[in-house]
Amino acid sequence: MLAGKRVLLIISGGIAAYKCPDLVRRLRERGAAVRCVLTQSGAEFVSPLALGAVSEDKVYQDLFSLTDEHEMGHINLSRQADVLLVAPATANTLAKMVHGAADDLATTVLLATDKPVVVAPAMNVRMWEHAATQANIAVLKDRGVTVIGPEEGDMACGEYGMGRMSEPLEIAEALTSFFHDGARLSGRRALVTSGPTYEAIDPVRYIANRSSGKQGHAIADALRRLGSETTLVTGPTRLPDPPGVNVVHVESARQMLAACEAALPADIAVCAAAVADWRVATEAGEKIKKTPGGEPPPLKMTENPDILHTLSNAGNARPGLVVGFAAETENVIENAVAKLARKGCDWIVANDVSPETGTFAGDANTVHLVTADGVEDWPELTKKAVGARLAARIADALDAAHD
Ligand code: PMT
């Protein structure tokens, strides 16, 4: 059910918009409060009057309406919802979302939101199959947008194929399971580390590693999708912040540790960051000068704090379930088992990071989950799928501990 959920339904201009009053009805039947935002072209296919009547709420259309801005404001509109549902999502609206265009109320709200976004695409089969639309869908999925449909069937334009908007009942069902899955970790706090750390040598140079943050970010996103209040502490990456996650950006291992400690208490901690084991003992205050014919500067190293070890041994502040990673280039399982004992965590996710595996910065990962019960070999999965599977395993473990 959708009881108590606030759905902001954004209706863009496709013929499938005529199904939206029915969609509003289906959502409300399940207990959701629905507020509509209608684009100018959407209003060619469905009337604001019909939407207002079925939603029993005002229908918002104009970015520059003084009354609307005064009463609600586009930022509030985007925030006072539990989910933004774009249905129908036309090829044009999807493209605008990818590029961050904000030239009307609907796209401005989509750009300003910090809430999960679900889209139900609807368009002609050729438009759906076009490389541009497929690339746009891939980008949106990558950013955490949930896509419902489209379906195959007869289209209003007379053609047959993929591109028909899912039926209102199916969209309502999909949204219900979106929230149901999202409830598994509700009330739980999760902490995830991700990315590399940068350890300064002087004000312009640093020591880093090849981590892209893809794996850690995917885990934070997956935990958030299951409803946990998630903090992601990340070293420098090129990735966008996962939506709905509290993201703390740091550079060094010491900053990462401080941010993790500030995020406690937590029920779950997953340390996926590639934290530098060592840093330069004394960071030079000024850029180290190269002198003609001079010796390269000796870099004396010192050990960094071990974040995983610290969290695993934090006494009363220890998260209930602590998961570490092991990045190995040889004897992967053996080293991971030893690491589990040495760090004092509950599980270790072991992965081979030899250059030929493409694990660092790639989109796929082959991991082995090491727990007290033994070793599970997972097949090669996308990093997002590893995140989803790990989050589900974490939810299972917390459920079992609760029973
Ligand atoms: O970021 P991607 O490009 O997607 O790549 C993903 C990944 C390869 C970085 C990721 O899957 C991974 O393996 N992360 C752990 C990297 C690592 O530092 O592994 P390690 O075996 O050196 O460290 C063991 C564990 O201790 C890790 O959980 C690490 O986060 C933690 N650690 C290590 C050192 C330190 N000072 N503090 C720590 O918390």
What's the arrangement of secondary structure elements?
Layout: E1 6-11, H1 20-29, E2 33-38, H2 48-55, E3 59-60, H3 66-71, H4 74-79, E4 83-89, H5 91-99, H6 105-112, E5 117-121, H7 125-129, H8 131-142, E6 146-147, E7 151-154, E8 160-164, H9 168-181, E9 189-194, E10 199-200, E11 206-207, H10 214-225, E12 229-234, E13 246-249, H11 253-263, E14 268-271, E15 278-280, E16 301-303, H12 307-312, E17 321-328, H13 332-343, E18 347-352, E19 364-365, E20 367-371, E21 374-377, E22 381-382, H14 383-402
Parallel strand pairs: 1-2, 1-4, 2-3, 4-5, 5-6, 9-12, 9-14, 12-13, 14-17, 17-18
Antiparallel strand pairs: 7-8, 10-11, 15-16, 18-20, 19-22, 20-21
Helix pairs in contact: 1-2, 1-9, 5-8, 10-14
Residues 193, 211-216, 253, 271-275, 277, 304, 306-308, 324-327, 339, 351, 353, 359-361, 383 line the site of ligand PMT.
Overall 3D form: elongated
Q: If you average the pLDDT, what whole number results? A: 93
Strand content: 15-25%
Head-to-tail CA distance between termini: 24 Å
The CATH class label of the largest domain is Alpha Beta
Structural class: alpha/beta
The tally of strands reads: 22
Please work out how many helical segments DSSP would assign.
Answer: 14
Please tell me how large the radius of gyration is.
24 Å
What's the name of the CATH homologous superfamily of the largest domain? Answer: CoaB-like
Main β-sheet, in a few words?
Answer: 8 strands, mixed
Question: In percent, how helical is the residue content?
Answer: 25-40%
Number of domains: 2
The multimeric state of the shown protein is single chain
- At the fold tier of CATH, the topology name of the largest domain is Rossmann fold
Widest beta sheet: strand line-up: 13-12-9-14-17-18-20-21
Bound molecules: ligand PMT
